[in-house]
Amino acid sequence: MSDIHADISDRSTALGGVGSVGDYWTLLKPRVMSLVIFTALSGLVAASSDIHPWLALVALLAIAVGAGAAGALNMWYDADIDALMARTANRPVPRGAILPGEALGFGLALAVGSVVVLGLLVNIVAAALLAFTIFFYIVIYTMWLKRSTPQNIVIGGAAGAFPPMIGWAAATGSVTLASIALFLIIFIWTPPHFWALALFRENDYARANVPMLPNVAGAGETRRQILLYSLILVPVTFLPSLLGTSGLLYTIVTALLGAAFLWHAVDVYRLREGDAARRACRRLFGFSILYLFAIFALIIAERILGVAPFAPVIG
Amino acid sequence: MDQKPFSPEDMSRRRKRSIALALVLFGLVVLFFVTTIVRLGGDVAMRSF
Asked: For chain A, which residues make up each domain, given as ranges?
């Protein structure tokens, strides 16, 4: 890591300060941030508390900035491998538009700022969860697991799964089984989502020496694992119904979406050669994004439409 | 370390960055002010502490 950072600093031949507003915006990983905002909003809404709308807005803003800070710190640390992958080579740090030190300072300032704002203006439980999420994503996932184990995505996926729990905690000041269920949905969804991507981007990860499952255990094992996780994911998506968070609309649509998800996962398992196999992976990857979005949109939609949640069966 | 002089494009980017930073700081002032009002609630001046 330090070599590439020295190299980038030398190539820039400047003391920095030439990155544009757009470059800094890119450091925040705005697409990831939008999904974080959306799932956190879903947690906030699902909690059904009487939080003031302004405070809810402040909470979402702090969570979004915290997610952006994690993105910036990730781009600071991963500049070496980002430079080797087609998908990431044009990011501001490997391109030399922003110096590694600038990205680090930017990320740290936002991380501390977002946690402090959430703690002071909303509540301490949400702030503690946000701080832990940033720590988990940077130290546990980016610095440790990503480069050392093909299970990187499985454990590291927890970082992406926390936002609805943080939203829930912002609304209620607590962590409950229902908010853990929202966490579990994203946690179990992450491996099939990323492994589908890794299957058609296998060369990218191999070039960067990132031990993704396909280039360590092989494409066949990855397909098997995708199917296994998909089989676990679908029942897990019904937990909100069993815990009294969601109602009939969510349950019916989620069942249909789950059937479609399994259909795509079976396709990935079944089709192993050539263009058909690659297309199946791309279809699962694309559908998985729609699937997660739809599940959390349904939770929000039920609240807006006034659909009554089921009585809790567990919890 | 050699420091190249900033080009006009660099200066333009720096200027835009400074404006963006000023807007963010102003936004934070508004954020803290409104949140304080919301947290305190109405009739602040009439409360006994």
From this structure: 21-174, 176-315
- Sorting pLDDT into bands at 50, 70 and 90, what band is A238? very high
Average pLDDT, chain A: 92
Cβ pair B32:A121 closer than 8 A: yes
Most confident of A2-6, A86-90, A284-288: A284-288
Q: With a CB-CB cutoff of 8 Å, which residues 8-27 of chain B face chain A? A: 10, 13-14, 16-17, 20
CB contact under 8 A, A20 and B39: no
What residue in B sits closest to A123 (Cα-Cα)?
B39
The C-alpha atoms of residue A31 and residue A68 are separated, in whole angstroms, by: 10
Q: Examine the pLDDT at B49 and tell me if it is beyond 70.
A: no
Domain A21-174 has CATH 1.10.357.140: yes
- What's the DSSP call for residue A231? H
Identify the residue among B13, B15, B18, B23 best suited for mutation to test binding to A, counting A beta carbons within 10 A and taking the highest.
Answer: B13
- Closest to A186 (Cα-Cα) out of A156, A161, A168: A161
Q: Which long-range contacts (CB under 8 A, 24 or more apart) does B3-11 make?
A: B3/A13, B3/A14, B3/A15, B4/A13, B4/A14, B6/A14, B6/A17, B6/A18, B10/A17, B10/A18
Average pLDDT over residues B2-31: 88
For residues A292-303, give the mean pLDDT. 96
CA angle A157, A161, A165 (to 5 degrees): 155
Contact predicate A136/A166, CB 8 Å: no
User: Which residue in chain B has the smallest CA separation from A56?
Assistant: B35
Phi, psi (rounded to 5 degrees) for B15: -65, -45
Q: What is the mean pLDDT of residues A45-69?
A: 94
Q: CB–CB of A52 and B14 under 8 A?
A: no
CA dist A204 and A27 (Å) reads 21
Q: Is A193:A208 a contact under the CB 8 Å cutoff?
A: no
